[in-house]
Amino acid sequence: TIYVASYGGFRIGELLALRLNDVDWSRGTIRVDEGLTDVAGDLAFEDPKTDRSFRSVPVAVFGTDEGLRSA
């Protein structure tokens, strides 16, 4: 988790909102399309703050199955 957060440049809310279906292992990317935020004391999933925040972040080779096999 720490590696993904630091390498991908995720905001904390984006990181907490990641789900398994956001990871595309065949392409080696993580899709950012929502964030977890506090709304009046309740947690809610919301769209990112800006259009540029919708993105696909590449996963470094050693973070994928291929990298783990060669390590």
Describe this structure in words.
The protein is α+β, with helices and mostly antiparallel strands. The chain has 3 helices and 5 strands, in the order ααβββββα. The chain has helices spanning 2-8, 12-17, 65-70; strands at residues 23-24, 29-32, 35-39, 42-46, 55-58. Mean pLDDT is 80; it is low at 67-71.
Structural class by secondary-structure content:
alpha+beta
Distance between the termini: 19 Å
Helix percentage range: 25-40%
Give helix and strand order, one letter per element, not per position.
Answer: HHEEEEEH
What spatial order of strands do you see in the largest sheet?
Answer: 1-2-5
On the 0 to 100 scale, the average pLDDT is 80
Overall geometric form: elongated
Tally of separate helices: 3
What's the story with the biggest beta sheet?
3 strands, antiparallel
Beta-strand content: 25-35%
Quantity of strands, as a count: 5
Poorly predicted regions: 67-71
Radius of gyration: 13 Å
Name its key features:
71 residues; 28% strand; alpha+beta; two-stranded antiparallel ribbon; elongated; 27% helix; disordered C terminus; 3 helices; 3-stranded antiparallel β-sheet
